[in-house]
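batch job 7 of whatever, protein = GDT1 family protein
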Amino acid sequence: MQYEKGLVLLGSMGALSLMTILSVVIGRIFQSVPAQFQTTLPVGEYAAVTLLIFFGLKSIKDAWDLPTIVRSGEKNGPELDEYVEAEELLKKKVSKRLSNPLEIVWKSFSLVFFAEWGDRSMLATIALGAAQSPWGVASGAIGGHLLATSFAILGGAFLANYISEKLVGYLGGVLFLVFAVATFFGVF
């Protein structure tokens, strides 16, 4: 919702493509590991729960820190002046911090890479990479990620016209926490 869609897509797809390739390679390695050396400890799920909780709490904190949108005519006087001043300061800080296209690509890449590490699609890709053609699994997964990410980016740009970034932050944070709990209890 905040940044140029092409840069977000580039960063996101870079992360998802790298993760897919790594997953297929891990699957091929696991295929060659004897059964007596395989562990039953769900390390991937524990890492996923930890990352989901981290991103959930971070999203909620970031949304909490955003100023509340004031519609014209609702507030007057010094409160409105403070709001306008805070909004300008926030815009300067955000635009100054992420004005470089490489920073936007890197932020998208790192957020997606670490959020997706250890999730079910990664584990499924590892399993498919061990059992099926690695080229077919990698190309199919990357194509699927491209389609889903494109829809998500276009949907985010559309939703930006109708809902606030603060609401999206709260909802995203809550969803991260719900998925963390669901993953922890093995719902998905």
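notes: The longest helix spans residues 5-31.
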